[in-house]
Design brief:
heterodimer, A: 306 residues, 14 helices, 78% helix, B: 512 residues, eight-stranded mixed beta sheet, 30% helix, 21% strand
Chain lengths: 306, 512
């Protein structure tokens, strides 16, 4: 296991370096003007010139890159052009909300998706299997925006069971988590169904049944364990993307997470905030992938051995 | 399992819903404020919160009338350049410290100093020496004096009749001379009718009634301001009773007028929607071409079909309600033949090709397309360039857009806030004049209108300025929108403010 971890960590270095460069260059070459976002529609040329100087916008790119890298090496993501707050503080303040939403969405997706997949795999081709297949396709096809608004319409406006948006408590988490997790439910269900159906054809399953184990024990302890690898892959990837901000879901449900922070920074051309948050999110994504790899090794000892 | 999972979490969720006290007013912004520090308030949400927490020397009431705030009175000298403000006695900051003239002076210095300024110091620039101080070339503001603790004397570089209105801007709000340690923008201390309680970024700001306010204290205990970026979610929040008021989106006007007719309030906005015509670019330098663009656009149809009639057509830049607005002047009629004739006379018998830039705002999408179709009939070929707000604004600011579909929200209710930034040649580009109009006669009229102490002369000049702007056609003149808000039946004492700094929520109360 330690070997797997070491190899993965070494492989991460060029990835993180690439992220560092791309995060820096991305908005430097994009059109738009951060000063225009700061001063609004009415400004005087002297203020515009002074702000450009203060924000070092007219300095050569290499010099700005060096200053940026030096800051990163000192653990400083910089200060927002717009709010003048430290970016790391802004991210730390918003990340718990993103984490809560990601966990809730993943929990919903994993439990519901795997349950649907298992049921489908037990009776392949049965009516329940066909129904979950259709549901899975629908889940993948519906855009997040539409699903979110539909859930608000049904559960907040018509039934009045849940609040439409906000983040004051558990009840506020349900609709965004369902919206965000919906797509993963479909994919996890299909993955589980296919992998489990294949695993249940294996000799070891026949042996388990011959030993007289109950069908549920055969399916859950023997079949599912061997079908888990692709499911872990999907869950890991989706969880990583949830953690790196779910802009649409956070916007529809006024959820105060990292996704909205990044979107706001991009629209205002808040360069340090964009660079800092992209770097933070990429590192988060990379480490979630690393954790996924370690889960592989746990689920299938052959991975660790290789 | 899935059969039972959803109902369980729904019931659990409903049980965990947070309790909302009855005397809490619920308002919202579409974006998190930049800061709650007046010196950094360059955006509307920041300005609105600063208005709640802080006081200025002057302020606007809900109808946009200027009234005394911290200054109980003021005088102007005979030369029209020195204002003497007399402060109200007994005003205290939320932490109990008395507010004096020293705090006023410190606040103005702070709003202008390069180290603390947010880039919007222009409301204070008319004070003599303020610009040099802001540029870092002077150690102090020569036109700012405090003879005693209750008097502030401000000497201007030139007469400026609108100056008391500039002092009602959020950037001129008064903060304590010695600030508490830490981020003042995150933990503000003012003297206004509401005191700061908490700010959870991108989520909500909570302010509480200041019982020691020098004026009439707020009627409600708490005002909670949610940050809700999505218009449909705002509507859902209102319809589920979790917002006290909501602005009705333009595309939803008909539905709201049908479903919530009794809850709707209207107010003509001090705002202009227009297409800026860059008068420095190619054929657009010719006034006949610019007039042709106006003749070719069927504005009344656009207003009715796309905006549901929520606006007043204007024949000039000034919206109704401002002194200087002339309701007798007729807008450019829709006359395609006249437009073609003007283009021919200008030397473009085969028409012209232009780029129309627009931001990604919803209401601009259909409008830009409709304008494109209208202009095509007159032989004006338009390519629509849709960009995010930052890119589009930068393009127009730097003069790279032929046409720019945009609007202008008044910073303060006065014709000067349209005429000077939008049409004086010194403001070309970043200053607000996105048409890059440079007309020396117009410049002289605008300067005279700003400086004259005679109110009647000023109104006359503002009318003449608007008439000349109309004739020079630096815009495709569209309309002044009408604000449409829904207000819960149980909310009393709230009206749509004429200007964004005019609503303090002090009279608003919820009674169910």
């Amino acid at each position: 296991m330690i070997g797997v971890l070491a190899r993965r960590l070494i492989a991460l270095t060029p990835t993180l370096l690439g992220v560092l460069v791309i995060a820096f260059l991305l908005l430097q070459v994009a059109p738009g003007d951060p000063v225009a976002a700061i001063v609004g529609d009415r400004a005087d040329p002297a203020t515009v010139a002074r702000l450009r100087l203060e924000l070092r916008l007219d300095e050569p790119l290499p010099r700005r890159f060096v200053a940026y890298v030096v800051g990163i090496l000192h653990g400083d993501l910089g200060t927002s052009f717009i709010t003048r707050r430290p970016i790391s503080r802004d991210l730390i303040e918003r990340f718990p909300a993103t984490l809560r939403l990601a966990f809730a969405a993943m929990l919903f997706a994993a439990v519901t998706g795997m349950a649907l997949g298992i049921i489908g795999a037990i009776r392949p081709g049965g009516w329940w299997d066909r129904a979950t297949t259709i549901a899975a396709y629908l889940g993948v096809s519906f855009p997040v925006y539409w699903v979110g608004l539909l859930l608000i319409l049904v559960f907040a406006l018509t039934l009045r069971w849940l609040p439409p948006s906000g983040s004051d408590g558990l009840s506020f988490l349900i609709l965004p988590a369902l919206t965000l997790g919906m797509r993963s439910v479909a994919i996890v269900a299909r993955m589980t169904r296919t992998a489990l159906a294949e695993a249940l054809q294996g000799d070891f399953v026949r042996t388990a049944r011959a030993k007289g184990l109950t069908e549920w024990r055969v399916v859950l302890h023997h079949g599912l364990r061997n079908a888990l690898l692709p499911v872990i892959t999907v869950i890991g990837l989706d969880f990583g993307s949830y953690l790196t901000g779910s802009i649409l879901t956070e916007t529809i449900f006024s959820w105060p997470g990292v996704g909205r922070y990044v979107l706001d920074a991009i629209t205002k051309r808040d360069l340090p905030a964009v660079q800092g948050s992209i770097l933070f999110l990429c590192v988060t994504f990379v480490f979630v992938n690393l954790l996924t790899d370690l889960c592989y090794a746990k689920a299938d000892p052959r991975v660790a051995f290789e | 399992m899935n059969r039972h999972f959803l109902p369980i979490i729904l019931v659990l969720g409903a049980a965990c819903g947070s309790h909302r006290p009855g005397r809490t007013l619920e308002y919202y912004f579409t974006a998190d404020p930049r800061s709650l520090d007046p010196a950094l308030s360059t955006d509307v949400p920041s300005g609105e919160v600063v208005t709640l927490l802080f006081d200025n020397l002057t302020r606007f009431d809900v109808d946009g009338r200027l009234e005394p705030d911290l200054a109980r009175s003021w005088e102007l000298d005979r030369r029209g350049v020195t204002y003497t403000f007399h402060l109200r006695p007994g005003v205290r900051f939320h932490d109990g410290r008395p507010l004096t003239a020293r705090d006023v002076a410190a606040s103005f210095r702070r709003a202008l100093a390069p180290a603390t300024s947010g880039g919007r110091g222009w409301p204070l620039y008319p004070i003599q020496g303020a610009e040099a101080f802001a540029a870092g070339t002077a150690a102090g503001i020569s036109g700012l004096r405090i003879p005693d603790d209750s008097t502030v004397v401000l000497s201007l570089a030139r007469p400026l009749n609108v100056f008391p209105k500039l002092l009602a801007m959020p950037v001129a709000a008064v903060v304590p001379e010695s600030l508490p340690p830490g981020d003042f923008g995150q933990h503000p201390i003012g003297s206004g009718p509401w005191r700061f309680v908490s700010w959870s970024h991108d989520d909500q700001i909570v302010v509480a009634r200041n019982p020691d306010y020098w004026g009439k204290p707020a009627a409600s205990d708490t005002l909670r301001i949610r940050i809700i970026p999505e218009a449909l979610t705002q509507a859902a929040e209102y319809e589920s009773g979790r917002l006290s008021v909501v602005e009705v989106p333009f595309g939803e006007t008909a539905r709201w007028e049908h479903d919530h007719a009794a809850e709707l309030d209207r107010r003509p906005a001090i705002r202009a929607l227009y297409v800026a015509i860059n008068t420095r670019r190619g054929p657009l330098a010719d006034v006949r071409v610019r007039q042709a663009l106006n003749y070719a656009t069927d504005v009344s149809t656009l207003l009715g079909q796309i905006m549901g009639g929520r606006g007043t057509r204007t024949a000039g830049a000034l919206p109704p309600g401002l002194d200087g607005y002339d309701s007798t002047r007729a807008p450019y009629p829709h006359d395609v033949a006249k437009a073609k004739a003007l283009l021919r006379a200008a030397g473009y018998p085969n028409g012209i090709s232009l780029q129309l830039w627009r931001t990604d705002r919803d209401e601009y999408g259909r409008l830009a397309q409709a304008i494109q179709q209208e202009l095509a009939e007159a032989g004006i070929r338009v390519e629509i360039v849709e960009r995010d707000a930052s890119t589009a604004r930068a393009a127009s600011m730097h003069g790279n857009a032929d046409l720019f579909l945009t609007d202008w929200y008044a910073d303060y209710p006065d014709a000067e806030d349209f005429n000077f930034p939008l049409f004086h040649s010194s403001n070309a580009g970043a200053g607000g004049n996105r048409a890059f109009l440079a007309d020396s006669a117009l410049d002289r009229m605008i300067t005279r209108a700003r400086e004259t102490p005679d109110s009647a002369e000023r109104v006359g000049l503002d009318r003449q300025i608007d008439a000349r702007v109309f004739a020079l056609a630096p815009w495709i003149f569209l309309w002044a929108p009408v604000d449409l808000w829904a207000r819960q039946p149980y909310l009393h004492g709230w009206r749509i403010p004429a200007i964004f700094t005019g609503q303090r929520w002090t009279d608003a109360v919820v009674s169910r």
